[in-house]
Amino acid sequence: MSLPTPTSDSRAVVTGASSGIGAALADELAARGYSLIIVARRAELLNALASRLSSEHGVQVEVRAVDLSDPAARAPLATELAERDISVLCNNAGVATFGPVAELDHDVERDLVQLNAVAVHDLTLAVLPGMLARRSGGILITGSAAGNLPVPNNATYAASKAFVNSFAESLRGELSGTGVNVTLLAPGPVRTVTPDPADASIVDKVLPDSLWVTSESVAKDSLDALGRNKMRVVPGIVSKVMSVGGGYAPRALSAPIIGKLYRKFGEGS
Description:
Elements (H helix, E strand, L loop, with lengths): L10 E5 L4 H12 L4 E5 L2 H15 L3 E5 L5 H13 L2 E6 L14 H29 L2 E6 L12 H20 L5 E6 L4 E2 L10 H5 L6 E2 H13 L4 E2 L3 H12 L2 H18 L1
Parallel strand pairs: 1-2, 1-4, 2-3, 4-5, 5-6, 6-9, 7-8
Helix pairs in contact: 1-2, 1-7, 3-4, 4-5
């Protein structure tokens, strides 16, 4: 099964499209001829991206500046998508926090769950009936290698991605033979640009350049995998190690080691 052929009426949706993997997915889809609905909070970045993609690729690009962590703001978007011809949905928006969860802002942690997990669920359920009726569609869900194992000092993020990882792979099994493809993207560290040493985050400082992958390569590999209806795409060495480790390493051993590393991320944030 391949992805639906782009048409003037259909749209590919990308959430978290203002930067990083989301922007790269929008770019790759536009290059493949898909008109788009791009979603993120920052309207100015979305408008600039929409203008560039329309100019470079001759596709239509609609902007939806929506805070997906807010259920009230998210609901109209879900209603709209349920009524549109959505050929591809890239559920990519997400954020991470670092540090002991008891010491973090509880409202921020709740918003993280809404964005990383509940929004993914809502938007998927919105587009699914139409895709099933057309017997055609593709749903790419950005999970994480962190969702494969316990990650102290990254607890809410890892738990939200564990939901997403399981949901994507379970949904794929349910949709076998329907014409709707589902692929889980489980990346590790992804770099958009090489940071200036003065502005580098603690994550940039801890992880060497060889362990990073580019957002452009992740986008291409992910959409190729979605077109083949591959269950999971795991780009980069770190994500592959975490995926294997999550399945085989004793958690009583791996959790403290990973927790110490992520504690450093929190201390540098």
